[in-house]
Amino acid sequence: MATLLFAEHDDASLNPVTARALTAARALGAPVHVLVVGENARPAAEAAARLEGVAEVLLADAPVYAHRLAEPVASLGVALAGEYDALIAPSTAVWKSVLPRIAALIDVMQVSDAIAVIAPDIFERPIYAGNAIQRVRVRDARKVVTIRTAAFAATGEGGAAPIRAITPADAPAGTLFVGEQIAASERPDLTAARIIVSGGRAVGSAENFAKVIEPLADALGAAVGASRAAVDAGYAPNDWQVGQTGKVVAPDLYVAVGISGAIQHLAGMKDSKVIVAINKDEDAPIFSVADFGLVGDLFQLVPELTAEIAKAKA
Amino acid sequence: MKILVPVKRVVDYNVKIRVRPDGSGVELANVKMSMNPFDEIAIEEALRLKEAGKATEVIAVSIGPVKTDETIRTALAMGADRGIWVKTEEAGIEPLTVAKILRKIVEAEGPGLVILGKQAIDDDANQTGQMLSALLGWPQATFASKVVVGEGKIDVTREIDGGLQTLELALPAVLTTDLRLNEPRYASLPNIMKAKKKPIEEKPAADLGIDLAPRLDVLSTLEPTGRTAGKKVGSVAELVGDLKQAGVI
Ligand SMILES: Cc1cc2nc3c(=O)[nH]c(=O)nc-3n(C[C@H](O)[C@H](O)[C@H](O)COP(=O)(O)OP(=O)(O)OC[C@H]3O[C@@H](n4cnc5c(N)ncnc54)[C@H](O)[C@@H]3O)c2cc1C
Ligand SMILES: Cc1cc2nc3c(=O)[nH]c(=O)nc-3n(C[C@H](O)[C@H](O)[C@H](O)COP(=O)(O)OP(=O)(O)OC[C@H]3O[C@@H](n4cnc5c(N)ncnc54)[C@H](O)[C@@H]3O)c2cc1C
């Protein structure tokens, strides 16, 4: 049989985490079909069809799938599940909300946040904020797995899979979409960025994020992240939170500014290739994972670093 | 309207856990246990809805072995009215099974709202609320950061990738909490004393007619590959030099 991969996208384009989850899906060894569900989502389906190793793209395009609400999308997943051995999705807000519903309705125990595929029925996943790695074997005949995409390289393009339109499944009523506030940003997406600059409580205000952290990010072409403390205090929006209960990232370069390095924060970034920490406390735990540590006041050091980077790039 | 809040007993978030050297699991002997932080947020939200006159009773339910009642007692000390303890022989009941047990409790109690944590900080599964909602056929809103209860409906603002989303759910419904929903209260001493007299009903899990056997076999539990501290650099110029050499800028 085959593997069904649920694509992360915004109808107009495919989110890069999909290509990473595809790498995990292909590791199961069966042909991979990609499901693109949304409204006016053909562009995303076309992008999915170009990915290497995709056998077929299923396109469920209907008004009921606008905003990918969990209940109708899960009903569709349940309707399709019978034809697949494995249902795979990236661990994004959408699929974290949908996949456990499908799993419950087909009576399968889900594996959340897989970081390695050992065999088609054996996966590794982090527990306790990544302080332990569990290797689990799924006893259920069918597998339902969400993928921590930071742990997988992206599959490249080069495919030309056929796109098959599928009809919507019956959708339960009960949930209405009211509105959305999505911040438009020129910066790269946190989960896809090659470089991330994150600020912590020490940054002190939203104005300081704009004045100190964001210029460094822009000089580096980086995405901006934050600790929970900075988000809770209102210095940064919620979707910038990096950590156990925020986004898990693994960029080439992660710059932690005024962040102490609590285990919950480390859980979200300690697999970054190179970590830089700027902190005035030389004993801050963040230095225990940093490749390069700079001890001192961020309000002096970060503008200096921004200028130095701009100079180096000029 | 009754509100049901499932609360889980987990290793305290401040504890740095240790993996047993033989790979058989995480060392849990003599480790400080607490209520899952997201469940404290769930209890708090339920209490605020009761205080605002939107709910009549807050029931805390937990599934687990000996000492699980301590966690229920914590919920009662915060202000929940009564507790239900579904007793199991062992810890580590999987989310699918927990959801099936909770469905039975919901059927017996008839709450208008179930508020769960978005994830438990031990197993980080982030599944139980969604599974319960699917099994009940009730609307769900995960990752709630704001809740407004209306007439037969509820507006929920959710933390999603890229920002916030607001949904309107018909009641009864299932919610899971995110960090920004509220700041949970501390239990006052008088309330801790009062909680000792509040009832906790015990139900053996075996009596519910649900298969408790795990569907996932844990083959091993290992230490993650560690990271060692690098070097401290003396200046911004030195840092930029090192980053260039590392090929990341
Ligand atoms: C259930 C739960 C989930 C959580 N999930 C997350 C999560 O996903 N992500 C997350 O980040 N946290 C999470 N946390 C919170 C975590 O435990 C820490 O509280 C948080 O990460 C601390 O943020 P911080 O490092 O910015 O602040 P602090 O710990 O206060 O650190 C501030 C640092 O800035 C330094 N500093 C101060 N002034 C300056 C200056 N002028 N120049 C340079 N350095 C300075 C200080 O030395 C200190 O090290 C969670 C906690 C719980 C209970
Ligand atoms: C001692 C121990 C042994 C374990 N052994 C195994 C094992 O052998 N095999 C295995 O597969 N896993 C084992 N685990 C992990 C166990 O499966 C997880 O704890 C379980 O899967 C629940 O995942 P979660 O709590 O992260 O779910 P989540 O879906 O993240 O939980 C979300 C919410 O659901 C509610 N909830 C969850 N569980 C309960 C509960 N018990 N009572 C009330 N409400 C609850 C809470 O509101 C919680 O915030 C073990 C865990 C422990 C602590």
Automatic annotation (TrEMBL), chain A:
Record's keyword terms, sorted: Electron transport, FAD, Flavoprotein, Transport
Span of domain Electron transfer flavoprotein alpha/beta-subunit N-terminal: 3-181
Any matching Pfam family: ETF
UniProt superkingdom: Bacteria
SUPFAM superfamilies in the record: Adenine nucleotide alpha hydrolases-like, DHS-like NAD/FAD-binding domain
InterPro entries: DHS-like_NAD/FAD-binding_dom (IPR029035), ETF_a/b_N (IPR014730), ETF_a/FixB (IPR001308), ETF_alpha_N (IPR033947), ETF_asu_C (IPR014731), ETF_asu_C_CS (IPR018206), Rossmann-like_a/b/a_fold (IPR014729)
Keyword match Transport: yes
PANTHER family recorded: ELECTRON TRANSFER FLAVOPROTEIN ALPHA, ELECTRON TRANSFER FLAVOPROTEIN SUBUNIT ALPHA, MITOCHONDRIAL
Protein name per its UniProtKB record: Electron transfer flavoprotein alpha subunit
Family, as annotated: Belongs to the ETF alpha-subunit/FixB family.
From TrEMBL, chain B:
PROSITE patterns listed in its UniProt record: ETF_BETA (PS01065)
Cross-referenced Pfam families: ETF (PF01012)
SUPFAM superfamilies: Adenine nucleotide alpha hydrolases-like (SSF52402)
Superkingdom: Bacteria
Signal peptide positions (record): none
Homology family: Belongs to the ETF beta-subunit/FixA family.
Protein name stated in the entry: Electron transfer flavoprotein subunit beta
Species assigned in the record: Ancylobacter amanitiformis
